[in-house]
Amino acid sequence: MRVLRPSEWNEWFEALGLAFGGGAMPAAKRDLYREVTHVDRSLAVWDGTEPVGSASSFPFSITVPGGGLVRAAGVTMVGVASTHRRRGILTSMMRRQLDDVRAWGEPVAALYASEPGIYGRFGYDTASHLIRAEIDTDRVGLTLPEGTDAVRIRRVRDAGAALAAFEEVYAAQVPARPGMIARLPHWDRLGAVDPVEDRAGASELLSVVAERDGRVTGCVRYRTRADWTDSVPQGRVEVRDLFAHDPASYAALLRHLWGIDLTSTVQMENRPVDDPWQLLVSDIRRCRVRVVDSLHVRLVDVGAALAARSYATPVDVVLEVSDPFCPWNTGRWRLSGDTKGAACAPTRDAADLSLSVRELAAAYLGGTRLGTLAAAGRVRELREGALADADAAFTSGAAPWGPHMF
Ligand SMILES: CC(=O)SCCNC(=O)CCNC(=O)[C@H](O)C(C)(C)COP(=O)(O)OP(=O)(O)OC[C@H]1O[C@@H](n2cnc3c(N)ncnc32)[C@H](O)[C@@H]1OP(=O)(O)O
């Protein structure tokens, strides 16, 4: 195992594609992946001249509760050749990667898992969830808030103008929810890349903005997919991204999606669990909402990670943390914080709560409550009242969400 060399990227990426069981990636997308790859943060495992293992990470910054950013390694491109599995190659890459991330001073690692069962053994846990929905728009109505009619809806045809409008809205949303990722160069284009091979018969990706008083106040990117089974028009609107600055702009975009002729379904693939449309619909059951794990987080440096976020209520607790895979985190940590910020340092004081680094990861962005983890037997209260205090402090106003896939 060693750090990848730029000249090896092609065969490394091809082996990764095979590990994922996929066919060739469209050239436009592949070129962008090459541009965003940090070769110096990429690991390659070789058997002779054959690449058999890969792992990489992006130097992201992720929003934490309170609206600040924490430096986080966005772990990605993990694969082991089918001929070389279950021999410890992934384990050796995770060992090296977490040691590197620690040396780079990034307190957190985060990833989207192909399968949620893989990464717990390395100290990751689910830190945010997403919802998917298949909304029967023939039957499900919307109640629109005041001001919706004042919002203008406009399709932006020019790709450059659409991207600029979208990115302006996106950037303003980054502090709004834990789990959001500040854009790195090229990632804007990766979100909008739209090769014909990926459409599977659907339309191109359409960009529509909401505007009020000449200012862009929201945007949505979606495709439409026609369906004329039995001559009945029952097409589908496939929503990729939807952001808005205010309720009226948000509702105006929803009304647009609901009202597209010859369609009867709006499909949402990745929305926050507290997405407000759920409170505007006439029949939530016909929206077929499903909850799925989303961002998995690992606290690489417990002290720095916990100090990087703020806390909803004042908290002063000693955490007894176990971390077999990254033993430098094992021990007692005093966490003191409130809405303005926090400090977290090793201590010899008696512990108030006992938990592993995985429970801290699950609670880190406010997506899972410490009280729920305690009810599952995963957090132990050692001082009466400490659990209630920490449970309240770790919550987040808005649910964490990861619309920026990587
Ligand atoms: C962030 C991302 O990129 S997610 C993408 C992950 N990649 C993929 O899903 C591509 C397809 N799969 C693969 O390439 C490989 O099977 C990998 C990367 C998941 C695992 O690689 P391996 O080298 O076989 O893993 P390794 O031998 O180190 O296994 C370590 C442990 O994880 C377990 N494990 C491995 N894969 C899985 C899995 N998919 N689900 C559950 N457990 C798993 C092993 O059984 C082993 O357990 P043990 O320690 O109790 O014996």
From TrEMBL:
Keywords: Acyltransferase, Transferase. It comes from the Bacteria. InterPro entries: Acetyltransf_17, Acetyltransferase_Eis, Acyl_CoA_acyltransferase, Eis_dom, GNAT_dom, NAcTrfase_Eis, SCP2_sterol-bd_dom_sf. Pfam families: Acetyltransf_17 (PF17668), Acetyltransf_9 (PF13527), SCP2_2 (PF13530). It comes from Streptomyces yaizuensis. NCBIfam families: PRK01346.1-4. Residues 1-145 form the N-acetyltransferase domain. The keyword Transferase applies. Acetyl-CoA binds at V78, G79, V80, R86, R87, G88, I89, L90, T91, S114, E115. The keyword Transferase applies. HAMAP family: Eis. Homohexamer; trimer of dimers. Belongs to the acetyltransferase Eis family. This is GNAT family N-acetyltransferase.
